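[DERIVE C-ALPHA CELLS]
===
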Amino acid sequence: MEKTRDFKLETEKAQKDFTASVIKTITLADGSEADFNQTLIERLLSEACNGLEDAVDLDLISRETFNNFFEKMPLANVMPAAIMATRAFIERDPAYSTVTARLVLQKLFEEVTGQYADHAQRGEIYRSYLPKYLERGIEAGRLNRRLATDFDLEKIAAAIKPERDEDFNFLGLQTLYDRYFIHIDDQRIELPQVFWMRVAMGLALIEKDNDTRTNKAIEFYDLISSFDYCSSTPTLFNSGTCYSQLSSCFLTTIDDDLFSIYKSLQDNAMLSKFSGGLGNDWTPVRGLGSRIKGTNGVSQGIVPFMKVANDTAIAVNQGGKRKGAVCAYLETWHIDVEEFLELRKNTGDDRRRCHDMNTANWIPDMFMQRVEQKGTWTLFSPDEVPDLHDLYGKEFNKAYLEYEQKAARGEIKLFKQVEALTLWRKMLSMLFETGHPWMTFKDPSNLRSPQQHVGVVHSSNLCTEILLNTSQNETAVCNLGSVNLSAHVDKNGGLNKEKLQKTIHTAIRMLDNVIDQNFYPIEEAKNSNMKHRPIGLGLMGFQDALYKMEIPYNTQAAVDFADESMEAISYYAIKASTELAAERGAYASYKGSLWDQGILPVDSLKLVDEARGFKGPVPQTAKMDWEPVRESIKKHGMRNCNCMAIAPTATISNIIGVSQSIEPTYKNLFVKSNMSGEFTVINPYLVSDLKDLKLWDENMIQDLKRFEGDLNQIDRIPDHIKRLYVTAFQVEPKWLIDSAARRQKWIDMGQSLNLYIEKPNGKKLDEMYRYAWKTGLKTTYYLRSLGATTAEKSTIDTKEHNKVAPIAPIGGVQARESYQPKEFCGIDDPECEACQ
C-alpha cells in the first residue's frame, strides 16, 4: 500500500507542475485507479537515459511509451510498455539498447525486491538483499547451503559492484532474465550482480578455507562481472546450485553390442538432462548386412539406433531450458557411411532419417589422399576390421592397405569399393543440401593430441571444438570458458598482454575448480575428468578487437593478429596450468604425455607433416619466449591434460555484448532470433565512425535497412569504412581458414569454425574443404549460406514494398516465397548452446 500512496502523490505532483494534453487512467496494484500523464512517463524514463542524452531522444520514447497505454491498463504493464517502445528505436542508435536494458533492470529490481531503485540506492539494496537471496534460494531447494555458511558474507556483499549493471545491452540482460536468473514459481530472485556472485561463489567452494573461498569468490566475481571473461552456459546455469553440473561437453564411444548401445542412449539422456552437449562415436557398431553370431541374423546397421538417439535428444529437453542436442560421428571407411550422409535429408524412408541429430564425418588422412589421387576407396564393416577404429597416421594407412588386400583375396566378406572422389562429392553435396555431416579430420586431431599415450580421439563434440579420448570406461568431459578478447585491446590499438595474463591466470583456476565441484551424471564421466582434468579456454569478441585495431577481417593483418593473440592466450593458459600443477599437483595421466615429452602444441605441427609426407602452409614460428614455460612444465608438469578450445559462444557473447567467438560480423544491421525473442542488432563501431564523419542520419538508417546492412551499395560511405566493416558473406572463406589455421597451431584441442559462402557451388566447396584439410585444421563446423528471407521493406521509402529476393538456400533448403516482418536475412544458427 505504501507504493500505491507514493505513486498517487507522484502522479498528482506531475499534474500540478505540468499541463498534460492527454491523461490516461491506469489500474493500481490495490485495484484503485489513478491518472497518468506523459510528464510522469518522462520522469520514469529520464534516469534510464542518464548520460546518453546526446544519442537518444527522451521526448520521442516517452511519447511512444504513452501511446502504448490503454485505458485502465494495470500498473504492472507500465514498465513493459516503456521497454517495448524503447527497443523499437535500437536501429536508430545502439544507445537505445542501453536505455532498454536499464528499463529491464528497473523492472527486475521491482520484481525481485519489491521496490524500484535508482543508482544511489542500488549498492545498499545489493548489500542487504544478498543474505535474503541466499535464504530464499536455499529454502526453495535452488541453492547450495554452503553458500550461506562457507563465506564471509559481509565481505562478499561489500565486494558487489552495482555500477556494472549499467554495462549490459538489451539483448544481454534480457537473455539473462529469461533463461539464467534463478526463479521460484516464475518470479526471479536474482539481480545481475547477485547472479555473477552466485556463479563465482559456486566455483570457489572447493578452495581450502573460508578466507580463501571468500577471496577467490571475489576474484572470480571481479573477472566475470567486468565482462573480461565468461564461463560457459552450464556453469552459469548451475554453479552454486544443488545440482552443479557445470561441464559443457560429453563425448562417448558406442561399442558393438546391444548393452553398450542402449547404455549409451541412457547415458545420453542423463547427460542431456543436466545441460550437457553430446558427441557420440558410432564407428564401432557393425554395418548393414553384417552377420550377428548370437542370432545368426543380419544387422540393420547403425541408422535404426541413431534414430532412437535422435528421439532421445528431443525427449530430454534439459529441464525446459533448451533442447537436448547430440552429434553423431562416423569414420569415412564405415560400410554405412553413404546412408549416414543422407540422415538429414527430407526425402526417403523417414524411419531411416534423423531430422534433429547433428552429424559429422570423421575423416582419416588416407581418404583425403585418395581423393587427391582420384583413387578408389574401400568401405568395411567394423566387426571385420576392428583395429581401424583405434589407428591413425602411418599405422592406420598400413592396416587399411592390408585390409584392402584381404578383401581382394576374399578374406573379408562385407566390403564395398567406391571412387574416393565420388564419395567426396556426395559428402560435399549433402553438406550443401542438408547442412550435414560436418567435415572433421581424424589424423591431425590424434597426431597433435597430448594424450595419445593413453587413448584415441574418436570424435569431437557437438560443436566440433573438443578433442578428447573416449572408450567404454571413459566418457570425455570438457569444461569451457571464454576470454573477451575485445576487452584486452588497449587504447592504442594493441593487445594488452599484461591484462590478458591476469585474466587467464584467474580463468584457468576457475575452470580447474569446475572439475572438482562438478556433478557427474554418470561414473564414466567422473572417471575420465578426474584422471585427465581437461579444460577448454577459448575466446570471443575477435571481430570487436579487429574493429578497435581498425583491421579489416579479410586481410593479412587480421591473420597475423589471429596468430599473435592465440599465441598469447596459449602461452598464458599453459603457464597458468603448470603453475596450478605446482600448487595442486599434475593430472594423474601426465606421465608419457606430449607435455611430459616436451612437445607443446606448436611443436606437434611437425608430427602432422611427418605423417602426411608434406609440409603444411602454416609457419611454425613464435614471437614470445617459450623457454620459461617449457622449464616450468619440466619442473611441475601440467594440471590439465588439455587447456584450450574455442567454442561458439553464441549465447554468452550476447550476454557480454560482443561478437561471438572468432566469427566475422554477420550483418551491420539485422534482427537476431533466439529463445528470448527477436532483437535488432546494429554495429556500434560502424555507428560511431559514421557519427564522426557526420554521416549518421535518418537517410543512412533507411539505406542500411534497404540494403540489409551492405555498405557497398551506399555511395556516400568512404571506401576505408566499407573495407573495415566487411561482413561474413563478403569475406572469402580462405581468410577464415587462414586465421583459423594460425590459431590452430597454438591450440591443444580445436575450434568451432563456421565457414560462410554467399553462392556455394561444388567447385568452391571442394577447394574450400581441401584447403582446410591441407592447412592442418582439425575440424570445421557449420557451412553457412544466406537465408531465404530479406528485410521487409514496408518501413522504407521504396516502391518495392515487401519484396522478397530469391537467394541461396540455408543448408540447401529451397528458398520459399515468404517474409518475416522487419527481419533481416537469417543464418542457420546452431540450436545447441552447451558450448556457449
